């Protein structure tokens, strides 16, 4: 199941990365973040119903939305060339530690406190909403000079 979801995310990453070269980084990342906000709770509900098909479908949809956020060069292009690799590494590492590292713990707490199996979807939707707020002011970087 996870391999199928990762394969779909890889294909989506290529397609969405190419789209970001054509239409811009912001539209792709904003659309992908919005998809996370909209799909997180329904995907969590479907994934917890016990259906193998539902679980795969939920993983594929969320994986494709995440691919649209991660495959775009927007964050790297925000840093000047001499520190670009360091900037990408630090932001990715910090985000992974703060959000990804704590997500299982927060999801467990949310389910325990609320009794709702879909509660982790609310957390993902909240993070996606915060991303949309940050993206509101983020400049388009696709068509400018990166030097």
Characterization of the model:
This protein has 147 residues and is mainly alpha-helical. It has a domain at 2-74 and 117-137. The protein is built from 7 helices and no strands. The protein has helices at 2-23, 25-47, 52-70, 74-77, 84-100, 103-114, 119-137. Helix 2 (25-47) runs antiparallel to helix 7 and helix 6 (103-114) crosses helix 7 (119-137). The longest helix is centred in the N-terminal third of the chain and has 23 residues, at 25-47. It is globular, with a radius of gyration of 16 Å. The N and C termini lie far apart (42 Å). The mean pLDDT is 90.
Q: In whole angstroms, how far apart are the ends?
A: 42 Å
Which structural class matches the secondary elements?
A: mainly alpha
Q: Provide the helix percentage.
A: over 70%
Shape: globular
* Mean pLDDT value: 90
| Radius of gyration, taken over Cα atoms and rounded to an integer in Å | 16 Å
Reported for the largest beta sheet, the result is: none
Tell me the total number of β-strands.
0
Beta-strand proportion: under 5%
What is the succession of H and E elements?
HHHHHHH
**Count of helical stretches:** 7
Low-pLDDT parts are none
Describe the oligomeric state of these chains in a short phrase.
single chain
Overview features:
7 helices, mainly alpha, 147 residues, 0% strand, single chain
Short account of what is shown:
With 147 residues, this protein is mainly α.
SSE topology:
Blueprint: H1 2-23, H2 25-47, H3 52-70, H4 74-77, H5 84-100, H6 103-114, H7 119-137
